[in-house]
């Protein structure tokens, strides 16, 4: 069992504990806002299960049927997680509408608020662990799960603040209003997650800063060559595939050309651990003005 899969299993356990805690807070208080918060925790548990399955599939090595590995399973799980988040947001909006039409007084007990705050703190701590571990392991699924938990933390903190204000102001509509705000925040998070995950499935290019950094590495490590062009980068789970064309003098010996290629590959792998690099060599007449000149 890989380290990322273990983190996925831990996430399921944390999610179940937080879910039980948040429903206890809702049962104590009767708050629509806390109910909406608890509903999102159901999605968190389902998402944790899906992410764990995807992490297990993605950790399998490349085979004859999948020569690039199984890493994109993580993006599939993230898309599903985003869809579930959107459905939860719609469900919360429905509950908020009911609260507007038929507002109910809240039992603003200290116990209920303390229970919800404890669940929120647990989510915050575990979200930080997932983001840090996901970035270290270069796992899109773990990073996405951690960011989702952070969204839940900020949402829960806002709900608790408003929930405390209801008995002070006497505005019963404030509770369903906060539930609606929670729903909109969750909806925004879900659509953003779907958009980012679909980008991974569609082999979207990295940002300009990353491309500029990679071009600099290629330029400085290709001494003896003329130009590097047609740089392409795509991510498959925790693996990054890089391809480029290397323009060399036509009379350069193969052994020397191969040494330049090896030096470039080592430099790229030093920047991106586990990168899979493919370099296509071309003669000098294939040089392009839009390529990366070698310095």
In words, what does this structure look like?
Belongs to the cation diffusion facilitator (CDF) transporter (TC 2.A.4) family. InterPro entries: Cation_efflux, Cation_efflux_CTD, Cation_efflux_CTD_sf, Cation_efflux_TM, Cation_efflux_TMD_sf, CDF_Transporter. Its main location: membrane. Keywords: Membrane, Transmembrane, Transmembrane helix, Transport. The chain crosses the membrane at residues 7-29, 41-58, 78-97, 109-129, 149-171, 177-194. The protein is an alpha+beta fold and 295 residues long. The chain folds into 2 domains: 3-201, Cation efflux protein transmembrane domain (Alpha-lytic protease prodomain-like, Up-down Bundle); 208-293, Alpha-Beta Plaits. It is built from 8 helices and 4 strands. The protein has helices at 3-29, 32-58, 73-101, 110-137, 140-169, 174-201, 208-221, 254-271, and strands at residues 227-236, 239-248, 276-283, 292-293. The chain has a 4-stranded mixed β-sheet, with helices on one face. Helix 8 links the parallel strand 2 and strand 3 (276-283). The model has no long low-confidence stretch (mean pLDDT 80).
Q: In percent, how helical is the residue content?
A: 55-70%
Q: Quick check: average pLDDT?
A: 80
Principal-axis shape equals elongated
Order of helices and strands: HHHHHHHEEHEE
**Range of strand content:** 5-15%
| Rg, alpha carbons | 25 Å
How many helix segments? 8
> What is the CATH H-level superfamily of the largest domain?
Cation efflux protein transmembrane domain
CA-CA gap between termini: 45 Å
In total, how many domains does the architecture comprise?
A: 2
**Biggest beta sheet attributes:** 4 strands, mixed
What is the total tally of β strands? Answer: 4
Reading off the top of the CATH hierarchy, the class of the largest domain is best stated as Mainly Alpha
InterPro entries: Cation_efflux (IPR002524), Cation_efflux_CTD (IPR027470), Cation_efflux_CTD_sf (IPR036837), Cation_efflux_TM (IPR058533), Cation_efflux_TMD_sf (IPR027469), CDF_Transporter (IPR050291)
Family: Belongs to the cation diffusion facilitator (CDF) transporter (TC 2.A.4) family.
Protein name: Cation diffusion facilitator family transporter
Domain Cation efflux protein cytoplasmic: 206-284
């Amino acid at each position: 069992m890989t380290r990322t899969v273990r983190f996925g299993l831990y996430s399921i356990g944390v999610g179940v504990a937080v879910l039980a805690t948040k429903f206890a807070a809702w049962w104590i208080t009767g708050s629509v806002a806390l109910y909406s918060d608890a509903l999102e925790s159901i999605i968190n548990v389902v998402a944790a299960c899906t992410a764990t399955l995807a992490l297990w599939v993605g950790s399998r090595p490349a085979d004859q049927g999948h020569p690039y590995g199984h890493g994109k399973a993580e993006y599939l799980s993230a898309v599903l997680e985003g869809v579930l988040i959107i459905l939860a947001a719609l469900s919360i909006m429905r509950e908020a509408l009911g609260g507007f039409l038929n507002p109910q007084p809240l039992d603003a007990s200290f116990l209920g608020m303390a229970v919800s705050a404890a669940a929120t703190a647990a989510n915050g701590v575990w979200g930080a662990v997932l983001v840090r571990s996901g970035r270290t392991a270069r796992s899109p699924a773990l990073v996405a799960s951690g960011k989702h938990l952070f969204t839940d933390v900020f949402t829960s903190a806002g709900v608790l603040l408003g929930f405390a204000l209801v008995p002070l102001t006497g505005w019963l509509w404030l509770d369903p209003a906060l539930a609606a705000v929670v729903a909109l925040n969750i909806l925004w998070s879900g659509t953003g997650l779907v958009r980012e995950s679909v980008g991974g499935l569609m082999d979207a290019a990295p940002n300009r800063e990353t491309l500029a950094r990679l071009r600099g590495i290629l330029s400085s490590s290709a001494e003896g060559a003329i130009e590097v062009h047609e740089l392409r980068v795509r991510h498959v789970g925790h693996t990054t595939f890089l391809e480029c064309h290397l323009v060399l003098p036509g009379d350069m010996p193969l052994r020397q050309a191969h040494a330049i290629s090896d030096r470039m590959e080592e430099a790229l792998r030093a920047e991106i651990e586990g990168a899979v690099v493919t370099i296509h060599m071309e003669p000098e007449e294939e040089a392009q003005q839009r390529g990366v000149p070698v310095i």
